[in-house]
Automatic annotation (TrEMBL):
InterPro entries: AAA+_ATPase, ABC_transporter-like_ATP-bd, ABC_transporter-like_CS, ABC_transporter_ATP-bind, P-loop_NTPase. It comes from the Bacteria. GO terms for molecular function: ATP binding. PANTHER family: ALIPHATIC SULFONATES IMPORT ATP-BINDING PROTEIN SSUB, TAURINE IMPORT ATP-BINDING PROTEIN-RELATED. This is NitT/TauT family transport system ATP-binding protein. The lineage of its organism: Bacteria, Bacillati, Actinomycetota, Actinomycetes, Micromonosporales. PROSITE patterns: ABC_TRANSPORTER_1, ABC_TRANSPORTER_2. It comes from Micromonospora tulbaghiae. Residues 8-241 form the ABC transporter domain. CDD domains: ABC_NrtD_SsuB_transporters. The keyword ATP-binding applies. SMART domains: AAA. Keywords: ATP-binding, Nucleotide-binding, Transport.
């Protein structure tokens, strides 16, 4: 927003699940903001509440207490302003629809003419490098291609925020590198505000403008790190920079600290 106010504001977010085995505090006390146009990566130990956080951001889960605000208004339910890409692309695409049909489906909720819709689908498939696959079905594509379709579906919708939950965890290393570059490119060329959750430290540093490191339960922000690497990045040069190594070491150390839990206050000498 032009007035400098944040796009997303999370304040004292807490989420407790009530289950048969009692209560699970998935998020203790989280506060942070995100500016429009940012690419924010979130890392943290497994089970620390990353997916829970994203679901609260996307309005899919209600916080137990605290606030999630998008463009100044509280998020109270799923919002058309946000698109989510999950890890399990296999389950997120409809096998009976073509690639084009899958990308087009959410656009049916928008007031677009048929021609505008077709243009948005073609543009999104172009952007993810799949213009030839519009008539294929998802099961005819590789895992990496299916995840590209899921990304195309999200960007065709032109969300204010793109939320991604470990989207590349299930693809091979080469495909993963290509998809990382795709996210960077979409961010640079389209300026889409993106929240990207990963458990991969190198991925968070390579992708992010900023990395939030979350602690183990009770989950809080362990570190909020600005990634001062060049805007233009590539897999070989950027990862070979001394600064890249410094930043990944910093994130690694913070995650190790996060796993050890909060540091106890020093006891007064007896
Ligand atoms: N629906 C649920 N009911 C009860 N407990 C849940 C539920 N969903 C998640 N949890 C618990 O909340 C905590 C945080 O889970 P969450 O999935 O948010 O973690 P995560 O950081 O995304 O983990 P991972 O890195 O493994 O994806 C875990 O202890 C988990 O067992
Ligand atoms: Mg998760």
């Amino acid at each position: 927003m032009a007035d400098g106010s944040p796009l997303l504001r999370v304040e004292h977010l807490r989420k407790v699940y009530a289950s048969g085995r009692g209560e699970v505090e998935a998020i203790g006390d989280l506060s942070f903001t995100m500016d429009p146009g940012e690419l924010l990566c979130i890392v943290g130990p497994s089970g620390c509440g990353k997916t829970t956080l994203l679901k609260c951001l996307a309005g899919l889960l209600r916080p137990t207490s605290g606030l999630v605000e998008m463009e100044g208004s509280p998020v109270t339910g799923p919002s058309p302003a946000m698109a989510v890409v999950f890890q399990e692309y296999g389950r997120s695409l409809y096998p009976w629809l073509t690639v084009r049909g899958n990308v087009e489906l959410p656009l049916r909720h928008k007031k677009l003419s048929r021609a505008e819709r077709a243009r948005a689908v073609a543009d999104a498939l172009d952007a993810v490098g799949l213009p030839q696959s519009a008539r294929s079905h998802p099961w005819q594509l590789s895992g990496g291609m299916q995840q590209r379709v899921a990304i195309a579906r999200a960007i065709a919708y032109q969300p204010d925020v793109l939320i991604m939950d470990e989207p590349f965890a299930a693809v091979d290393a080469q495909t993963r590198a290509d998809l990382e570059d795709l996210v960077r490119e979409l961010h640079l060329t389209r300026g889409i505000s993106t929240v990207f959750v990963t458990h991969d430290i190198d991925e968070s540093v390579y992708l992010g403008q900023r990395v939030l490191v979350l602690s183990n339960a009770p989950t809080r922000v362990q570190e909020d790190l600005v990634i001062d690497l060049p805007r233009e990045r590539d897999q070989l040069t950027t990862r070979a920079l001394p600064r890249f190594t410094e930043l990944r070491t910093r994130v690694y150390e913070q995650i190790q600290r996060a796993k050890r839990g909060p540091i106890a206050a020093p006891r007064p000498a007896p």
